[in-house]
Amino acid sequence: MSAQLDSAVEQHNAGLERFVSGYRLLPGVYDEMMDSDGHVRPHWQPFLSMLAALGSEEINRRFAAADRYLRDSGVFYRVYEDAAGIERPWPLSHIPLLIEPNEWAELEAGLIQRAELLEAVLADTYGPATLTAEGRLPAAMIAGNPEFLRPLVGVAPPGGAHLRFYAVDVGRGADGRWWVLNDRAQAPSGAGYAIENRLALSRAIPDIYRTTRVERVAPFFQAFQAELFALNKQDDARACLLTPGPMNETYFEHAYLARYLGLLLVDGEDLIVRDDGVFIRTVSGLRRTEVLLRRIDADFADPLELNAASHLGVAGLLQAVRDDKVVIVNSLGAGLIEARAMLAFLPALAPTVLGAELKISNIATWWLGRIDVREEMIEKLDSMVIASAFTEAFTDGRQGSEILGGKLDETQRQQLVASIRDRGVDYVVQEAVTLSSMPVWRDGNLQPRPFTLRLFIAKVGESWQVMPGGFVRIAESADARAVTLQRGAATADAWVLTHGPVGEATLLPTPERMQVQRASGLLPSRAADNLFWVGRYVERAEGTLRLVRAMINRSADDAAAPVIASLASLLGAWDAIVGDTEGAPAALIARAALTRGDPSGSLPYLTRAARSAASVIRDRFSPDAWRAINDLAIMIAAPLPAGPPESIIAERVEAALRIISSLSGLAQENMTQLAGWRFLELGRRIERALLTCRLVRAFAEKGAPDGGLDVLLDLADSQISYRQRYVMIAALAPVIDLVMLDPNNPRSVIFQLDRIETHLGALPRRNSTGRLSPVQQIAASIATGLRTADASKITDSLIMEIENSLMKLSDAISSTYLTNQERSDAAWEALA
User: Fold this and answer.
1) Cα angle at 307 between 301 and 310, to 5 degrees?
2) Comparing C-alpha atoms, which of 593, 710, 677 is closest to residue 640?
3) Distance CA 686, CA 532 (A)
4) Residue 171: which residues within 8 A CB-CB, separation 6 or more?
5) Closest to 815 in 3D by CA, of 778, 780, 782
6) For residues 280 and 522, is the Cβ–Cβ distance under 8 A?
7) pLDDT at 10 (0 to 100)
8) CB contact at 8 A, 329 and 164
9) 3-state class of 666 per DSSP?
10) Which H or E element spans position 608?
């Protein structure tokens, strides 16, 4: 038996050695997985042995499953320098960083101590300023920091703490010691992505994850969630996550964390400050919020007192803070401690403030705002890293966030020295640090890469909790110093190992914990507004596509010239094309409507607008619906291929109409039919009714071209219905009845009004009298007039009255329920 056991151990060790045989340590670099003698560190051996047992083919299959999960979940990020704002797939590196229990205990203690120090520094800076008065923190460093918010000096943070969710970037040096690289208090990102990394990896290698004793992160978020909710003073108040919007690089994380923590995702337009607090604009009226987990920079939080150019914040928010009406996490002004210049003073402050040395110190940093330090460091520039004292980028236009002194030529060095001597307060120098490495899976092998680890600390009650895990960023190249997703880095999970049993706590719903509910919570007015306009833009695009198709289908018929002229006139009237089209070939006019992006009624403009509106509320669409909207915009924006123009345009139009049809089906069959869906439908129905009215005026009234009734039936997608009821000849009254007054025709105007009345009746009423709301009264008036109308007596003036009433209805819906009334009907009013 002993011989068999020894043989199994030998086979196990041999398999592990083969698996790591190609791993080459980087010279002079501490490696997390392997010691300097080339031996796998003990706490890595079980994980690597199980991974090796899978074999390369199975490893690749499982890692591909993790990538597929992230893709299907819609996990993405943006690169700021990318003008197109393209969403990049989430770059997961599939090997986790393993941290053994004793080392984690040291990290945890050091981070809690650092959080206490930074909280004390913030409390003093915005309070008595004792540290500045004693010369321990230079006044120039505080006043020169753009994150120092003077309007909040003397204002105690509501809730009693400046820091409630703090992050710190750490790296390990060549000596094996951990060093703090940066403090993150402004709006620390990465926690939501860390959860997704954990979910993706635990699903890809569940057997290894279960066998390896990994601390769970859910208890940390449970405690933080409970703390946020406990900060509410009133039972009806909602806790919210304040986002700068969908173009932010980490917007996915904002939406994800809001769902995970049970917060309402809002932006500045969703909020309004009143004397008695901060409120959320919803379709049901104002609802109070008393807790904001902010993801916007403090300077943008209040255009009234801070950055007047900000469109992200809420006017009056600072006054609400002074009045103790809202707790902001982290407090406005907390970003002060992120400055690199602060790193130069924290180690010396710790004994004074805490009575002890820092357990984990930061990298050696010198602030050049003091003349004696400045001249000393100028002599040592060649061995140092020069960085901005307060911001990520240099204030003098230099590229990047740091400069390696040893890589400067003489001219560059002289220019830098002159700049430092001119404004030394803007610079720090730091000791050059070589980051430790960890394994990544590349080309079927393990390879070392430098990394940084972001850890998260939350204030819970009077104590601090550290998330047992983290957000790992891994450099693409082996010799990198700085690691950032904006420069091509990958991310990985961090597994904190434990000797004891692992709990199964989770914030994700499980069958036994789920409660039955059929409401989706508050609908912010901004979300309803964007749903309303997604419906309008998509319907408007469909109408334009149908006009283009009708034009192309008749382009070969010389007798259809008057019809083509009328179609072109309609396209011009709602700004789908610009310029004089008289005598122009149909294919040229159609191409212009299909490809010109500048007119506000053109197809590229409309589909971009639909995608933009949908992106703001992307979390309210299914992945399939979002892909349909995105695919439509991409297709319309793509150049037309070479070939006969009529057939190429026809193919593009048919493909686009199929996408719109699929999107309509997804909305009908996949969206929960609550308030959000109703606003999407209201936008579609109003737009379709307007379009149909204008088509009737163009092709069924006086001055209409010959064959106009057939064109009208075609554009209203009612040819088959008409032929089933009547003879082959299109007659005026039957056609008008079908497209205007028939309640059974899904394209008729009265059908749209029926649906509009139904949706309005299901929305929250703004009065308690029992009577129809003003919005319902407008819709009922239009519908009643149509229901009692005679097709033979429908006139151009009556249709124009209906159009005007529909636009009045749209304005009334906006003023009653929505927020963004900047989107104008001006292009459509030109037809009235």
Assistant:
1) 65
2) 593
3) 10
4) 178, 179, 181, 433, 435, 436, 451, 452, 453
5) 778
6) yes
7) 54
8) yes
9) helix
10) helix 603-616
Which residues contact residue 771 at a Cβ distance below 8 angstroms, ignoring those fewer than 6 apart?
none
Cβ atoms of residues 136 and 129 within 8 Å: no
Distance CA 701, CA 40 (A): 85
Q: How high is the pLDDT of residue 121?
A: 97
Residue 85 has pLDDT above 70, yes or no: no
**Structure token digits, residue 119:** 């909280």
Q: How far apart are CA 354 and CA 110, in angstroms?
A: 12
Gap between the Cα atoms of 305 and 294, Å rounded: 17
Q: Is the peptide bond before 330 cis (omega within 30 degrees of 0)?
A: yes
Phi, psi of 401 (to 5 degrees): -105, -10
Q: Nearest-CA neighbor of 96 among 458, 397, 491?
A: 491
Give a three-class secondary structure readout of 456-497: EEEEECCEEEECCCCEEEECCCCCCCCCCHHHCCEEEEEEEE
Asked whether the beta carbons of 298 and 244 are under 8 A apart, the reply is: no
Report which secondary-structure segment, H or E, holds 744.
none
Note whether 615 and 527 are within 8 A (CB): no
Q: Tell me, what amino acid is at 603? A: L
Residue 550 structure tokens: 């009708």
Alpha-carbon gap, residue 436 to 172, rounded angstroms? 5
Q: Treating both helix axes as pointing N-terminal to C-terminal, what angle do 191-204 and 251-261 enclose, rounded to 10 degrees?
A: 80
62, two tokens = 């499982």
SS (HEC) of 427-457: EEEEECCCCCEEEEEECCEEEEEEEEEEEEE
Q: H/E/C letters for each residue in 234-303? A: CCCCEEEEECCCCCCCCHHHHHHHHHHHCCEEECHHHEEEECCEEEEEECCEEEEEEEEEECCCHHHCCC
Helices then strands, each counted (H, E), the chain: 29, 20
Q: Return the amino acid letter for 426.
A: D
**So what's the pLDDT on residue 4?**
45
Q: Both tokens of residue 94? A: 């599939």
CA-nearest of 186, 496, 508 to 333 is: 186
What span, in angstroms and rounded, lies between the C-alpha atoms of 366 and 374?
8
Token readout for 695 is 């088509």
Rg (CA), the chain: 32
| pTM for the full predicted model | 0.82
Q: Which helix (H) or strand (E) holds 586?
A: helix 586-595
Q: What is the strand order of the sheet 427-431 is part of? A: 365-367, 427-431, 384-388, 402-404
Average pLDDT over residues 44-62: 93
Total Cβ atoms within 10 A of residue 511: 5
Start-to-end Cα distance in the chain? 94
Q: Identify the H or E element spanning 460.
A: strand 445-460
Angle at 176 between CA 173 and CA 182, to 5 degrees: 40
Contact call for residues 262 and 321 (beta carbons, < 8 A) = no
Torsion, Cα of 215, 219, 225, 227 (10° steps): -110
pLDDT higher than 50, residue 827: no
Residue 86, pLDDT score? 61
Q: Where are the alpha helices (DSSP H) in 328-370?
A: 340-343, 346-353
Give the pLDDT of residue 643. Answer: 73
Q: Which residues have a Cβ under 8 Å from the Cβ of 226 and sit 6 or more positions away?
A: 460
Q: Looking up tokens 């319309």, which residue turns up?
A: 636
**Coil vs helix vs strand at 172:** strand
Enter the tokens of residue 827.
């292009």
The helix or strand, by DSSP H or E, that contains position 100, with its residue range, turns out to be: none
Residue 80 has pLDDT above 60, yes or no: no
CB burial class (10 A; 0-12, 13-18, 19+) of residue 417?
middle
Pull the structure tokens for residue 128: 């008595």
CA distance 776 to 154: 51
